[in-house]
Design a protein that fits this description.
Length: 80
């Protein structure tokens, strides 16, 4: 029997509101670990994550069991 494997690679870019430089170097490591955990807990593969003070880039392998919109819908976070 033939097995099927599907994975879609997508890059997400999240910007801080008004592109303010709010991502501080002291806690960027914890932020990256937190975001990585969100994707991995949903059975997706984190490929690369990197941030600047005003935005973050995430390259992830999305498995087709979950839509992109449902994954991101409750994953956005506010930095006030």
């Amino acid at each position: 029997m033939i097995n099927t494997y599907t994975q879609i690679h997508i890059q997400f870019v999240f910007a801080v509101k008004y592109r303010a430089a709010l991502i501080e170097a002291e806690w960027e490591d914890n932020l990256q670990k937190y975001i990585t955990g969100i994707f991995q807990n949903n059975n997706h593969q984190m490929i690369q994550i990197n941030n600047m003070p005003d935005h973050i880039h995430i390259l992830v392998g999305i498995r087709p069991h979950q839509s992109i919109s449902s994954l991101i819908q409750n994953r956005k976070f506010k930095m006030d």
